[in-house]
């Protein structure tokens, strides 16, 4: 191994295969921790990489962020990846008690460790002007687990002059523009309308995301499904009122906060989980309208100093909890 070769910030399965025989590099780390992105690799590549990890006697820790692919990979295919990784995992972490129960009932996984993922940025809110028109923010790329475009279009037509409406996303691909009439409609609505804006950005750092969020007032989260939402966490730390579909395990994520005696204002939850999909968009639009009524009270209910203290404690617990898992799997490997 050349002296310049180091472990990359994000290790790929291809990197593992490339350096399969480089003992010096393998000896420079202790644990392989898998988070996400595995579904973009061929499943045989993932299996080969995991076998290599096992051959080097490196324990595997798996944080199961999502039980369904947020990128639209078919459920049966995605579950094959989950099953494969669980078979190789020495420890499994998930983010909510609800997800832990799902792992137990569906995959018969026991001893799952729940470690909430919350801290991204120091809690900080803008000082709102009482005369300013509130901004509704949609943040993120086009993904199957979020119906951003339809909700954005309905928000433009349905909120009239009550809000400024912004969507921050990455540049669109040719296929997205060719295949989506709804997207083209959304783009046309932003052209020449001073209260509607679409911002195309390159991948942003956490600080850049946080700074942009703090400029807004309401965060629209039209999830079709989700196991966990970092944006929902970030909304509270940036002083945004979340309007969120009540799907997946998001409610379980919210239920974790009171255990730390944190007074978290309620999000506006929109019912997207009863199967009446023809009503979902009307409900979300009503949620955005309701947000305007409660926004002043929401702002006053956020205790920034309390949140700062909570996030600092949470981050320490996050690190300590992971360290405990790593030590556990290393001791298990040592004694095997």
Automatic annotation (TrEMBL):
Q: Which residues form the Glycosyltransferase subfamily 4-like N-terminal domain?
A: 13-119
Q: Which domain of life is it from?
A: Bacteria
InterPro entries the UniProt entry points to: Glyco_trans_4-like_N
Protein's UniProt name: Glycosyltransferase subfamily 4-like N-terminal domain-containing protein
